[in-house]
Automatic annotation (TrEMBL):
PROSITE patterns for the chain: LYSM (PS51782)
Domain LysM intervals: 468-511
InterPro entries for the chain: LysM, LysM_dom_sf, SipL_SPOCS_dom
Superkingdom of this protein's organism: Bacteria
Name of the protein this chain belongs to: DUF3794 domain-containing protein
Source organism per UniProt: Mediterraneibacter catenae
Pfam name, any one: SipL
Organismal lineage: Bacteria, Bacillati, Bacillota, Clostridia, Lachnospirales
Length: 519
């Protein structure tokens, strides 16, 4: 006997690890920067440079990049910016056999800066990380068996997820924004915030198609050192070469935006009225195709005894690839800002996921939308302010009758955010939170690994009755009965006048040994 095998290449995800750490540092204002009178706002971004397992830990090293918008303490106060970076190294406990790959699935940061004195600041950063883990596995599934003697086979049909492509790549976005005629020309860029919105990813033939928008906020000083700002969405589209993919494949792609840059350029009239925008879109891609597989699960022969060894493995079938969008609408009463806000200049948001529960209706996620906005005040001495707050949310990613044994990969980001004034003491918040989910069913499978034959016990067979009356018990089917009584499914059906292979508990059957003829 010889087993016929089929290789399959797939990923297996482990349980995510959650970690939180803090950085506290004193920061000396560089000599070329003006004295700090008051901090308006600060923001920080975590960039991991290396993630690797070290014994029973995951070592994550990188830098925290921060930006601080402040008012100078000169005779004519004006906004200015401090930028810097702080290295970090975090050891996260994670038992591993050394064959897993670790990666950052979701990251959120909080940053505060306070004035010690005009040339020294105290910085405090908090980072929350969800660390994903996966391993690439190669299995051989047994599809059939070749034998000189007739062998009866039982197979199991599955639509398996086969990993076609697993890679990291980048796409460089380059766009230009021309200032409207009502805006001052740019003398010095102070603060920029560049983010990706409405990103649509499609599979093409040997390529990945990208389309989305970059939301660009830029605060700057004119040549006369007058503060101004612009916020504008700029569409982009492009492609990333990816050999081996096709339109009908499924994917789970994580994306992040790094290395954002806004530089001043001349327009056609030689004036500094063009912003050159550049950014790197990082893509971590697992791309799959569904593959029909017929897995040999059992066998027997009427001429010899089939003895085989098995091992248990867990395979995956795709349930859902979906982007679910949660709308958040909230009116916030802010009496502390009474008659203080003239205009909201720019808003930012981030998601803190507190729970993810699998239910019969789907995946229930609960969390907090952290919100901040930069605003213009009616005080010439302190013309800018920054508000921070949070809005809880709950959302169901629907999948009716969801099985118990599933694995889900969940990524999330703020797709749209708008904060508008609603009177003198309130703001209205409208946000769309996007959840990308890749849901798979976990299917335990006994894979036949080795098979051998042994002679039948002829004495035991001869002592068996030629005709048996059998009442079907719970869990029995025609296959198990045919194997047990050394006959065939077709033989049982013919004798009992069955049109198909369905039997129910309590059914009464006559079963003949295969070599017993009906007179």
């Amino acid at each position: 006997m010889e087993l016929i095998r089929k290789p399959i290449h797939y990923t297996q995800e482990g349980k995510s690890i959650f970690d939180q750490f803090y950085l506290d540092e004193d920061y000396n204002v560089p000599d070329q920067k003006e004295d700090v009178q008051r901090i308006i706002q600060g923001q920080a971004e975590l960039r991991a440079e290396d993630i690797r397992p070290v014994e029973n830990y995951v070592k994550i090293t990188g830098k925290m990049y921060f930006t601080i918008l402040y008012m100078t303490s000169s005779g004519d106060p004006k906004p200015a910016v401090l930028e810097g970076k702080l290295p970090f190294e975090e050891m996260v406990y994670a038992e591993s056999d050394g064959n897993e790959t670790f990666f950052l699935r979701n990251v959120r940061t909080e940053f505060t800066a306070s004035v010690v004195h005009s040339r020294k600041l105290s910085l405090r950063m908090m980072a929350e990380m969800e660390i994903g883990r996966e391993r690439i596995r190669d299995e051989e599934l047994t599809e059939n068996v070749e034998s000189d003697a007739p062998v009866y086979r039982k197979t199991r049909n599955m639509n398996l997820l086969r990993l076609a492509v697993s890679k990291k790549d980048t796409y460089r976005i380059k766009e230009e924004i021309t200032l409207p005629g009502t805006k001052e020309s740019i003398g010095q860029v102070l603060l920029t915030d560049i983010s990706v919105r409405k990103l649509d990813i499609r599979m093409g033939q040997d390529e990945i198609l990208l389309r989305g928008e970059m939301l660009v906020f830029c605060m700057y000083l004119s040549a006369e050192e007058k503060a101004d700002w612009i916020e504008q969405s700029e569409p982009f589209e492009g492609r990333v070469v990816c050999d081996g993919v096709s339109e009908n494949m499924y994917y789970h792609i994580q994306h992040s935006l790094d290395d954002t840059l806004a530089d001043i350029r001349l327009d056609e009239d030689g004036e500094m009225r063009v912003l050159g925008i550049e950014a790197t879109l990082n893509l971590r891609m697992n791309i799959y195709e569904e593959e029909e597989a017929e897995i040999l699960s059992d066998m027997y022969s009427l001429e010899q005894q089939c003895v085989f060894d098995t091992k248990e493995t867990v395979l995956e079938e795709l349930l859902m690839q979906n982007q679910s969008k949660c709308k958040v609408t909230e009116r916030l009463s802010l009496p502390e800002l009474k008659e203080d806000v003239l205009q909201i200049l720019h808003s930012q948001g981030s998601i803190q996921l507190e729970s993810e529960q699998h239910t019969a209706e789907g995946i229930r996620v609960e969390g907090i939308l952290h919100l901040s906005f930069l605003y213009l005040r009616g005080d010439d001495a302190e013309p800018y302010g920054n508000w921070q707050g949070m809005i809880p949310f709950s959302w169901l990613i629907e999948y009716p009758d969801m099985p118990e044994q599933v694995n889900s990969s969940l990524s999330y980001h703020v797709e749209q955010l708008a904060v508008t004034l609603a009177g003198s003491e309130a703001v209205e918040v409208k946000a769309i939170l996007s959840f990308e989910v890749f849901l798979r069913r976990l299917v335990p499978v006994e894979v036949i690994t080795e098979v051998r034959t042994e002679p039948l016990d002829m004495k035991e067979l001869s002592e068996r009755p030629g005709i048996v009356g059998h009442i079907v018990q719970n869990g029995e089917d025609l296959w198990s009965l045919a194997k047990k009584y050394m006959t065939t499914i077709d033989g049982i059906r013919e004798i009992n006048g069955l049109n198909d292979e369905k039997v129910s508990q309590g059914d009464k059957l006559l079963i003949f040994k295969e070599n017993v003829s009906i007179l």
